[in-house]
Amino acid sequence: MPDIALLKPLARALDTTVDTLLSYEKDLSDAEIASIKLELNKTYQNHSYSEGEAKSKEYLREYPNSVPLKIVVASLVELYGIKWPEVAVKVMNKSADDVTKGKIQYVLSLYQDIVNSGNIKHRAPALHALARIYLIIGELDKSENILNEIPSD
Q1: Between helices 67-80 and 96-116, what is the axis angle to 10°?
Q2: Residue 85 has pLDDT above 60, yes or no
Q3: What is the pTM (predicted TM-score) of this model?
Q4: I want to staple 52 with a disulfide (CB 3.0 to 4.6 A). Which of 44, 68, 73, 141 is the partner?
């Protein structure tokens, strides 16, 4: 029989929560998603990309299985990430290409998580987003393969 008293120290050691360890998933309502989206939008607009990204990642850590939240975060990173490479060149001493590639990989991974989640409602839109991004970055074969996965009904 496992000792449940070890759950809190284990969670702290892994920089996570007991709920995450136990795979507790609180479903976010549509209203909560809308509220989070509004908050993140304001953070990206009124503060900085890095603050918006940090806040987005906090929410994803808190709700790691929320497909609607992943959609919100992926779309905001795409939207506001356009400004980010110039800031990165100045602040982080990274090239704009390196930052853009990292951002693209992050967005692709979020959309791929959505596809892999089994969430039927959000699978096709995530596949469309993946195909679009692969097309933009010139990976035509990947884009075509993904488009072939989209149900025709």
Answers
A1: 160
A2: no
A3: 0.73
A4: 44
